[in-house]
Amino acid sequence: MGARKHLRPDEYADQAAEAIRSLNHATIGAGAYVYPSDVDAVIAHLLATVYGMCQSLSQIQRWIFAEADAGRVGHDQDADVETELEALSGALMIAAGRIEQTVQQLDAARRVSAHLTQTTSNDGTGN
């Protein structure tokens, strides 16, 4: 087995987006899930994915501000970089807050989905 290729951050982000697109396509049909535990597993993985996004956003913000402080960030339309970075920072903070809310809701969903089981009856009662 060869050495693992390290991708650039944008390539990892592209893979994450493609994985979500693939998941969406795979789960369009009624037969996509076989057991309630399948749903629980997907929710668990989505929870981990979304949770990790907060760290990614924080690291984006830290990097871009460090580069700006070093004088290595400009703007292709000659806008004031400091003003644009403040707008970027605000948008990233709002996104992170909404991601945290999504994490909380996915965690609540997971607390339910983790206890769902397959039944053998046709009426959904398990009797």
Using brief descriptors, characterize the structure shown:
mainly alpha; elongated
Structure description:
The protein has 127 residues and is mostly helical. It has one domain (15-112). The protein contains three helices and no strands. It has helices spanning 9-26, 36-69, 81-113. Helix 2 packs antiparallel against helix 3. The longest helix is centred in the middle third of the chain and has 34 residues, at 36-69. The radius of gyration is 21 Å and the shape is elongated. The termini are far apart. The mean pLDDT is 94.
The overall number of domains is: 1
The total strand number stands at: 0
| Proportion of strand residues | under 5%
Query: Helical proportion?
Result: 55-70%
Secondary structure topology:
Layout: H1 9-26, H2 36-69, H3 81-113
Helix pairs in contact: 2-3
Short précis:
The chain contains 3 helices and no strands. With 127 residues, the chain is mostly helical.
